[in-house]
Specification:
Layout lengths: L1 H11 L6 H8 L3 H13 L3 E5 L3 E6 L6 H5 L11 E4 L5 H10 L7 E4 L20 E8 L8 H20 L4 E3 L3 E4 L2 E12 L4 E11 L9 H4 L5 H5 L5 H22 L2 H10 L6 E6 L2 E10 L5 E4 L5 E4 L3 E3 L1
Parallel strand pairs: 3-4
Antiparallel strand pairs: 1-2, 4-5, 5-9, 6-7, 7-8, 8-9, 10-11, 10-14, 11-12, 12-13
Helix pairs in contact: 6-9, 6-10
The structure holds biotin.
């Protein structure tokens, strides 16, 4: 009922809707309407009530509420079920738990804040309240476990495309799946997998986008290397529109990948790459190399031409440009 009232207020915006109209169209009592208006206000919606005119929606909160994301979402299956958390340790853990309990493919966990956000290679991920988009997708791709890496690269392509379309900011991809603006990281992706030898049970693709932080919001350890879309553009970004665009792009790319394989995804990844055909240093857990980033192979591994001329295939690590 609350959602139906909100829909009505949105449809009529900026005009008011009379209490009588709401009663008639939704078959509720005036007392019930008043209670729902209070609940909406507590969630941050600004609603003016004027004696004879009725209720006018004057403000929508900056929150990643499922009903806001769903309002205008163009996807077929991705994000059709959204689990919303005001605060959570990490959306990846919540998504894994839901997947174990049988959540459907395409379900999404989104949080306003993560208190124990996880990054790649055992690092932590800073995810402050209302400043970014911290979300995890539950997928069951019908491929063998070694091919799962392709979905992570697909995620980088999709989110980069969504950011470019929604904000006009020229984000680039750094191998394997970091998104950068002017050399600073604005998005990271952490994929986790439950699999057997021959099949993937479920896959959780965790995506963190720094959206509206100020540079001083970042803890000391990230201040030099990270940025937000806001610091990059000087403009406060609408998080709901951006997550909607990211879900739509992801689903489009996922369907392309299911139909035509990794080739078109990789081509797009290469087009947006800022870490190919240049000199790089790579830090892997027990090793590091310097060389020329020559290519990416069909598994997403980086082919590094070492100073001695030999080609080193790198499957995991951190690139410094
Ligand atoms: C990285 O670049 O190190 C990966 C960062 C991944 C961050 C996202 S935010 C949503 C999801 N939940 C987590 O704890 N991590 C991922």
């Amino acid at each position: 009922m609350k959602d139906a009232i909100l829909r009505l207020l949105k449809e009529r915006r900026p005009e008011p809707v009379s209490g009588e109209d709401i009663c008639k169209s939704l078959n509720v009592t005036r007392t019930a309407i008043w209670k729902h208006m209070q609940v909406l206000r507590e969630s941050g919606y600004e609603i003016e009530a004027r004696p004879r005119a009725g209720y006018t929606l004057t403000g929508i909160p900056d929150r990643l509420y499922p009903e806001e994301i769903l309002d205008g979402l163009s996807t077929r299956f991705l994000g059709r079920k959204i689990y919303y958390c005001d605060s959570v340790s990490t959306t990846n853990e919540t998504a894994k738990e839901l997947a174990r309990q049988g959540a459907a493919e395409g379900a999404v966990v989104v949080a306003e804040e993560q208190t124990g956000g996880k990054g790649r290679l055992g690092r932590r991920w800073f995810a402050p309240k209302y400043k970014g988009i911290w979300f995890s997708l539950i997928l069951c791709p019908p491929v063998l476990p070694p091919e799962a890496n392709q979905v992570t690269m697909l995620a980088a392509v999709a989110v980069a495309a969504a950011i470019r379309k929604e904000t006009g900011i020229a984000v680039g991809i750094k191998w394997p799946n970091d998104l950068l603006v002017s050399g600073r990281k604005i998005c990271g992706i952490l994929t986790e997998l439950s699999a057997e030898m021959e099949r993937i049970n479920y896959m959780v693709v965790g995506i963190g986008i720094n959206v509206n932080q100020e540079q001083t919001d970042f803890p000391e350890e990230f201040r030099e290397s990270a940025a937000s879309l806001r610091t990059a553009s000087g403009i406060k970004i609408n998080r709901v529109k951006l997550i909607r665009a990211a879900l739509a792009e992801f689903e489009q790319w996922y369907e392309i990948w299911l139909e035509r394989g990794f080739t078109p995804v990789l081509a797009s990844w290469k087009e947006m790459s800022v870490s190919l055909h240049c000199q790089v240093r790579i830090h892997a857990p027990n090793k590091s190399w310097e060389g020329w980033a020559e290519d990416i192979d069909s598994d997403g591994a980086l082919l590094l031409r070492l100073p001695g001329g030999e080609l080193q295939r790198v499957i995991s690590g951190e690139v410094s440009l």
